């Protein structure tokens, strides 16, 4: 079956501002809090998207995409592909709208994320990472029907994420740099679209784990690249095997680069968030703080987006215990 894909177009400020009231009853306007990093540390504020009803930012985009379905599309139901957070977002928004939902889920997704998706009423179809990645490119999967909500390459999804940028500028008008994890690129594109429209001088940076950093490689090369040495890690919500050409087209005008951090740096950031702010962050949620602590983003003010907190507590304790110095 041939899938028609709409051409890439810029995410306008009008798109983002229109999404804000549309999703207001579904999402939480999350707080921005400062983390004390001691004398000489950078000025970092944390955008706590782990406090969303699904404990992750993906609800913003999902709520916007589902709200814009017409009656015929709602009757068909929706489906998406996810390692957990996008699936939860689409399932949550679909349940509120009375729409059925199927998630083609990466089989290595944390148990907690799978359980949450099922609890939200989603039907799960577990598949290997490579199969899910191929399905994202093809926008089709055998035996799954309904309206496909792409977990990152979707105009309405990205516009929903952009609402976070509006909140950041309202709460931190002096911000100089905003850092967010990059997986598919929808979050950082939405943020960049809002921030650059209102404050073109703000730096918008991604953060990726050393095990999966195609965006950093793409910015260095000036073209979308693959990351053939990809390997799975506890940072399941960020990083990928490649940058989709369509997402590179979206990111390039509004994102300034991507910082690569080690898994140990990510673990230290997870522990620091728990100790200093009493925040439980999953690996992808801690990446931006880890990136800020490298010094590559400058002294600040920096906003680090804590994109999610969906991590098994036993796994969290294992990761932050005995973190190398």
Largest sheet: 6 strands, mixed
SS strand fraction: 15-25%
Question: What coarse outline follows from CA principal-axis ratios?
Answer: globular
**Percent helix among the residues?**
40-55%
**Helix-strand pattern:** HEEHHEHEHEHEHEHEHHEHHEH
- Strand element count: 10
Unreliable stretches covering 5 or more consecutive residues: none
Overall SS class: alpha/beta
Give the N-terminus to C-terminus distance in angstroms: 53 Å
Kindly state the mean pLDDT as a whole number? Answer: 94
Count of the domains:
2
Please name the CATH architecture of the largest domain.
3-Layer(aba) Sandwich
CATH domain topology of the largest domain: Rossmann fold
Provide the CATH top-level class of the largest domain: Alpha Beta
How is the largest sheet built, in terms of strand order? 1-2-10-7-8-9
Q: What is the helix tally?
A: 13
Give the radius of gyration.
18 Å
Primary descriptors:
42% helix, alpha/beta, Rossmann fold, globular
How does this model look, in words?
The chain starts with 12 loop residues before the first helix and ends in a 5-residue tail after the last helix. Strand 4, helix 5 and strand 5 form a beta-alpha-beta unit. The mean pLDDT is 94. The protein has two domains: 13-56 and 155-320, Rossmann fold (3-Layer(aba) Sandwich); 59-148, Rossmann fold (3-Layer(aba) Sandwich). The protein has a six-stranded mixed β-sheet with strand order 1-2-10-7-8-9. A four-stranded parallel β-sheet has the order 5-4-3-6. Helix 7 (155-171) crosses helix 8 (186-198). The protein contains 13 helices and ten strands. The relative contact order is 0.16. It is globular, with a radius of gyration of 18 Å. With 325 residues, the chain is of the alpha/beta class.
